[in-house]
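Hey team,

Filing this mostly as a record. A colleague (T.K.) asked me to run one chain through the structure pipeline before their review meeting, and I want the input and output archived in the tracker in case anyone asks later how it was produced. No errors, nothing strange. Just documentation.

Input sequence:
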Amino acid sequence: MKKSILALCALTLAAGLSACGGGKSTYTIGGTVAGLQYPGLVLQNNLANDLNVTPLGPDGNGNIQNVAYSFPNEVDYGEPYSVTVKTNPQHQTCVNSSGTADTAGRLSSINAVIVCALVNNTIGGTITGLAADGLVLTNGSSGGTVTVTKDATSGAYPSTFTFPVGVTYGQTYGVTVLSNPANQTCRVSNGAGTMGDNKVESIAVTCVTNS
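Output structure:
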């Protein structure tokens, strides 16, 4: 009789523990990386356990494929996890999207999503000789415009400019004068190129007064 009671108690205790822990003692920390195009991405869990994630390349239709990843070390039930980006891939920036920080076991499975995008940088440069209103610069057909006006406080024309719309890595840009200032002609040098990993500040606009 005592053995039967002890066995029943043991079964009851085991069932209770299983119910509390969901029947699972450790969890794999993993998920999906979207938009990854270039190598170099390194993820961490709890600021350790470096994991290199390699892009798969485009599928048969030319679409960027999502990359599944998982850390080799599992996490015990009830332990916190936090997936972060340690190193961005070449030419891209990656950010946490969803499910990247929680407690293991709160959900039946862990899917920490990281989203990557090509870097996007501004273009701009210097202006010399501007002495009148009306200068408008444009970047191609869809890159936006910059209207250069006097500073409201000093009354002086600015010596630099920056387009409000950035250019994505690998895309071309071409800055030209859309509208000249009154009684002046402005020309652009170093206005065309292909966007790299850093912002462009070398475009030069020179204005001269018409004779």
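Quick notes for T.K.: The chain has two domains: 23-118, 120-209. Confidence is low (pLDDT under 50) at residues 1-21.
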